[in-house]
Design a protein that fits this description.
heterodimer, A: alpha/beta, five-stranded parallel beta sheet, 6 helices, 47% helix, B: alpha/beta, 5 helices, 5 strands
Chain lengths: 155, 140
């Protein structure tokens, strides 16, 4: 990725999460991987000010408690979260899933290949693209918000 | 691209538009390229029912009449149009431009390289990614 902030992975399946971790390692991608099991846990992580915001979010769709679409609806309505690129990583080939997530302005929809080598190739392309593309700087904005808060308080 | 639908380029500079066309040709990207000169023209194109919906939008930021950020503000509120992935392609390294674009959930923000070979390389990666990724309108 373009910077060294963590990648947040929303994935309820432990084996799938391990495959992502292994692929990132095989590709020498140095960003730490933070894995949560559903949308609810992801929101807790993302709203925790002591945790570093991720550079991108990789999310599965079918998860218990809060699924990927419910998560996107909430995250894309929150000022501090909506700017983080969210890439769907799923085995779902359902047209409705694809349409609904693009309506929530996702930044990619990758159907996970079952074959490991093909999966590594997919992750290589995801990494290439998000190394080429700039990423939103979470720190910058919080500084601006602090400045605005200070200005407002001084009036 | 994964879909055979055209790519919509919103760019006021004709020389830059020619460069994009040339790079796509050099990369053998088969999608057609539709070029609009600013946000206003692009909106007119998108809202005219008879035109083909693009698979992705490549968007410059600094343009007359309606700039890239104003264009994003409008299409991201439009139920039909908000699902089309928008990739900013600009010379601007301004932090505020970048932040405001990502606040509109752009699907990429690429700083245009002045060097042609590097520019082709960046379009190559862009094409790889949007061939791997599904798109909202898969049809032909």
């Amino acid at each position: 990725m373009r910077d060294c902030r963590p990648i947040l992975l929303l994935e309820d399946d432990t084996v799938d999460a391990m495959t992502v971790k292994r692929a990132l390692k095989d590709l020498h991608i140095l960003n730490p991987l933070v894995r949560v099991s559903n949308g609810e846990e992801a929101l807790v992580y993302l709203r925790d000010e002591s945790k570093e915001k991720p550079c991108v979010i990789l999310l599965d769709l079918n998860m218990p408690k809060m699924n990927g679409i419910e998560f996107l609806k909430i995250a894309k309505a929150e000022e501090k979260l909506k700017r983080i690129p969210a890439i769907v990583l799923t085995t779902s080939k359902d047209d409705q899933d694809r349409i609904r997530t693009f309506q929530l302005s996702i930044s990619g929809f990758v159907v996970k290949p079952v074959d490991y080598m093909k999966f590594v190739e997919a992750m290589r392309i995801v990494n290439l693209y998000w190394t080429l593309s700039e990423l939103p700087n979470s720190e910058q904005e919080s500084t601006n918000e602090k400045l605005q808060a200070n200005t407002a308080g001084g009036r | 691209m994964r879909s055979s639908k055209p790519i919509l380029l919103v760019e006021d500079d004709n020389v830059d538009a020619v460069t994009v066309r040339r790079a796509l040709k050099d990369l053998n990207v088969p999608n057609g390229l539709i070029h609009q000169l600013d946000g206003k023209d692009a909106l007119e194109y998108l809202r005219s029912g008879s035109n083909k919906t693009p698979c992705v939008i490549l968007l410059d930021l600094n343009m007359p009449k309606m700039n890239g950020l104003d264009f994003l503000k409008i299409i991201k509120k439009d139920e039909e149009l908000k699902q089309i992935p928008v990739i900013v392609m600009t010379a601007s390294k301004d932090e505020r431009d970048k932040m405001e674009s990502f606040n509109f959930s752009v699907a990429g923000y690429i700083i245009k390289s002045a060097d042609y070979k590097k520019f082709v390389e960046s379009l190559k990666i862009l094409n790889l990614y949007w061939t791997l990724s599904e798109l909202p309108y898969p049809g032909t």
